[in-house]
Amino acid sequence: MQDAQLTRGAFYAHFNSKKALYTEAVLHAAFCSPISSIGKETDDATLRSIVRNYLDMSHVKQEGANCPLAFLVTDVANQQDEIRDTYTQVYRGVIKRLNALPTIEDMDSALSISALMIGAVAVARALNDEKLSKRLLDACYKTSERFM
């Protein structure tokens, strides 16, 4: 709040509810996330680079842009429908962009890659063994290559 030069009350006055704030935060984080750059022009090498960078310890440690799909997955599961709808909308957008790539065979491949990425980062964040976290990320990257 200090950086924004706002009091908490002034900040929250910009939103109708905490639910609205949460929803906006998810949308903003998704727009800035590492996988938001996937688009129709993404070639195979670029996709591999995006996946590799996503499945990296710097992402797990929240250094740089973070993906709300991985970092909020367990919290969103316990939220109201409006917030879960927003999360679902963001996830569907990722799947749609992945599925549109010429290097992705089908919807199942897009779903698998996204689950490997999001799940690996979520689990790696929960572990207190960095070596195991890194091994998990590497294993998921190797598996994701089967779908690209």
CATH domain class: Mainly Alpha
CATH architecture: Orthogonal Bundle
Average pLDDT metric:
90
CATH topology: Tetracycline Repressor, domain 2
Total helical segments: 9
Give the domain tally: 1
- Helix percentage: 55-70%
Determine the strand fraction and express it as a percent band.
under 5%
Q: What is the oligomeric state here?
A: single chain
How would a textbook summarize the main sheet? none
Gyration radius over CA: 17 Å
Order of helices and strands: HHHHHHHHH
Outline type: globular
User: How many individual β-strands?
Assistant: 0
Give the class from helix and strand content and strand pairing: mainly alpha
**CATH homologous superfamily name?**
Tetracycline Repressor, domain 2
Characteristics:
148 residues, mainly alpha, Tetracycline Repressor, domain 2, 9 helices, 66% helix
Sum this structure up briefly:
With 148 residues, the protein is mostly helical. It has helices at 8-12, 18-32, 44-54, 57-60, 68-71, 73-76, 81-99, 107-126, 130-144. The chain has one domain (18-147): Tetracycline Repressor, domain 2 (Orthogonal Bundle).
Write structural notes for this entry.
With 148 residues, the chain is an all-alpha fold. It has a single domain (18-147), classed as Tetracycline Repressor, domain 2, CATH 1.10.357. It has helices at residues 8-12, 18-32, 44-54, 57-60, 68-71, 73-76, 81-99, 107-126, 130-144. Helix 2 packs parallel to helix 7 (81-99), helix 7 (81-99) crosses helix 8 and helix 8 packs antiparallel against helix 9 (130-144).
